[in-house]
Known about the structure:
The structure holds two protein chains of two kinds.
Chain A: H1 2-32, H2 39-54, H3 61-84, H4 92-114, E1 129-132, E2 135-138, H5 139-161, H6 163-173, H7 175-180, H8 185-211, H9 220-231, H10 236-261, H11 265-280
Antiparallel strand pairs in A: 1-2
Helix pairs in contact in A: 1-5, 1-6, 1-8, 1-9, 1-10, 2-3, 2-4, 2-8, 2-9, 3-8, 5-6, 5-8, 9-10, 9-11, 10-11
Chain B: H1 11-15, H2 21-40, H3 43-68, H4 76-92, H5 98-116, H6 126-145, E1 161-162, E2 165-166, H7 170-191, H8 195-205, H9 207-212, H10 217-243, H11 253-266, H12 271-298, H13 307-325, H14 329-342
Antiparallel strand pairs in B: 1-2
Helix pairs in contact in B: 3-7, 3-8, 3-10, 3-11, 3-12, 4-5, 4-6, 4-10, 5-10, 8-10, 11-12, 11-13, 12-13, 12-14
Amino acid sequence: MIQFLQLLVAGLMEGGLYALLAASIVLVYKSTQVASLAHGQILAFGAIFFYLFLGPFGLPLIVAIILTFAASGLMGLVIERTTLRPLIGQPLFASFLVTFAVFMLFDGVFQLFVKGEAVTLPPFLPKGTMYLGTIHVPKGQFWSFLAALILFGLLGLMFRYTKIGLGLRASAEDHQLAQSTGISVKQIFSIIWVLSALVACISGIATASITDIYYTLPQMGIKGLIVALFGGLESLPGALLGGLLLGVLENISAGYLDPLVGGGMKEVAAYVMLLLILLIRPYGLLGLVRIERI
Amino acid sequence: MRPCGIFDEAYTQDMAILRTKQHWAVLVGALVLLYLFPLFGSYYMVSFLNNLFITIIVVLGLQIVSGYCGQISFGQPAFMAVGAYASAILTLKAGLNFWLALPLSGIIAGLFGVIGGAPSLRIKGFYLAIATIAIHFVTIWLIMHLQITGATQGLNPMPPEIFGFALDTDERMYFLILTVTVIMTFGARNMVRSKVGRAFVAIRDNDLAAEVMGMNLYHYKLLAFFISCFYAGIAGSLWGHFFMVVHPEQFTLTHALWYVGMIIIGGMGSIPGVFFGVIFVRVLDEFVLFASPFLSDAFPWLGASPAAALGLSAFGLVLIIFLVFEPRGLAHRWEIFKSSYRLYPFAY
């Protein structure tokens, strides 16, 4: 029982980070109908920027965070302007593939930077371990998790109450109708890419503060896509639910099945789950049900 | 498009792949040149071509399922791995002859691909692409955790023999790989103009309309996956016996991205496009490999061996350029070039 709870809590902490990345993908999908793999790279580069500003440049924490946000937002904007905007009007699948191409382009740059070694962020979150009864939780993970939850709340509020949020929701419903009511859909696309880049960047910083920056970090992008699909591509609550569930599932299957099959369950559990969900509920847990015959 | 004054008078003429004497001359000349290549080509070039031909076989399969049938698949390396392992296990553990194991491994990979293609019955487009990524990872995980595949050790298939003559060097293997590539290309080119090929194109262009016209979607989608994975399996088998090692690390998701990129650069839905795409990307890769020592001298912060990373970046960049500026690929440019020289003195 203790082991189960321990795995559950560890899974929830990890799931919060998946959820954050999935949220950035959902944000983009909601308004532009493009599922993006490029966010895996924005996440990885967010971590790298943060490392550069905090470590080698030795800036204070708050300045480093602001600069990292600026750099990541710029990255999102550049990706949108140079690769996705020219593809407006093309089949959506081309946009999906171009995010793959962006992924590969930046992956090369990322590999050049990391060179197969682990880059460790300077510690900036509280050290030590908290205890909930007999379950121990590293403090850094707890704060990342909390930050993720707060960010979800903020995103929800922004969508609900601000004018930009209204524009985002309107263009998510229908691009042409939104355009005809005076919302600049192109501008909305840019805003959403910057916003989602910021979310991905926060997720990157949080991930890197827990696991170091390895050359496999960008492949979190695939995990993010899986979570987004799992929760439903149009649904922010779905991203949160999907992320938490995936984190828990990964940890529990790794904890209980690894001794039986000889390891590696953690990597494969997500994909097995994805295949099942795609076959049973292709639109995800909370996604819009598309009425379409295939 | 036919040149001025040339008319097709019969259906067979219209459908013929090789219509003129010049076509035959070019084909025979090219084949003779290719078969004589090891006589004057360097060892490096021969081994480069071996690699290129194996990639062409894999990408031909991908072109059939993605370019013709419209089901984008990122699972090609996994199916290639299934073929490679099937062939290695059949020859090493079951003691089968390579010449029997080669087609068998294609069929095994094909059947596996039918299972892998099963999600296409429920989902399409982007969802299917992600599902094939999942299939890739599950397959590689299975290979790494089963006893029969040698787990993380991999297997070491022997080079094939023909009448006691071992094909154990790159030059000797070249003839086998070239022959198989020619046969597979011929097969693919013929298949796509048959009833099956037309059905694939109909499904790609509009699956609902295709179904309304009385096509069995399930049958044809699974058939597309079977054929594509058959190609991957054959290529995997050749790959295993050529390198004499099969290991899960050889079949990564990055390879899948490369293959999909190759058909985009070459042109979706075109068999010559496969050749354009594979050759373009491979030559680009060789160029980066050649240039990277100079770059790493000029810019020390790139590190000692930036070739792999730079190749990835260059490929990503080229892919973006093609998707934005020429989504129909090199094959489309080739068609434009052909029609312009046929009409040469006139604009149209």
